[in-house]
Amino acid sequence: MKIDIRKASAGDAQEVCDLFREAILAVDRAIYSETQLKNFALAFANKERWERQVMQDLYLVATDNATNEIVGCVSLQKTGRIDGLTIKPGLQNNGIASRLLEAINSIAEEINVLQLTVKSNLNTTSFFEKKGFQVLNISAEEIAGICLTNIILGKRLWLS
């Protein structure tokens, strides 16, 4: 699959919202119950929330060249915090997340961000570690009735 990486626009908000919801609902049922996942997905189903985030953060989307469908997304805050790295279910392990992260890395270096941080979970921590991130902290957070283990990882860009 050939993909393009581009800055998101407000017009992408609904598709990003749908992608995030689809990704949440595809999480392994051995980890969370159906009810927990539905509640979690509803907590992020607000299109206006996504419009604000797309406009406030540096938000990138990966699109399939053939269909122009958004197949991945990620945002970077000016503080260096990476948020919402999401890939369409069924398309993981095709290099889309790596391409999005490479683009975020490049932009962070251009705007002189010294360190990237990301809030990860047990399923995605190894991906970030393979990309040079190190665990900084582990904590618990409750979102929509789901207790999540958050793993905060960081990567210093000025030492890369």
SSE order and pairing:
Layout lengths: L2 E5 L5 H13 L8 H10 L3 H10 L1 E7 L5 E7 L4 E7 L8 H15 L4 E6 L4 H6 L3 E10 L2 E11 L4
Parallel strand pairs: 4-5
Antiparallel strand pairs: 1-2, 2-3, 3-4, 5-7, 6-7
Helix pairs in contact: 1-2, 1-3
Task: Throw out a few tags for this protein.
alpha+beta; 160 residues; 7-stranded mixed sheet
Low-confidence stretches: none
Rg over CA atoms = 15 Å
What is the number of helical segments per DSSP (H or I, 4+ residues)? 5
Q: Tally of extended strands? A: 7
| Average pLDDT figure | 87
Characterize the largest beta sheet: strand count, sense, and whether it forms a barrel.
7 strands, mixed
Strand order of the largest sheet: 1-2-3-4-5-7-6
Helix proportion: 25-40%
Strand content bin: 25-35%
Describe the structure.
With 160 residues, the chain is an alpha+beta fold. The chain has five helices and seven strands; from the N terminus they run E-H-H-H-E-E-E-H-E-H-E-E. The chain has a seven-stranded mixed sheet, sandwiched between helices. Strand 4, helix 4 (96-110) and strand 5 (115-120) form a beta-alpha-beta unit. Helix 1 runs antiparallel to helix 2 (34-43) and helix 1 (13-25) crosses helix 3 (47-56). It is globular, with a radius of gyration of 15 Å. The two termini are 29 Å apart. The mean pLDDT is 87.
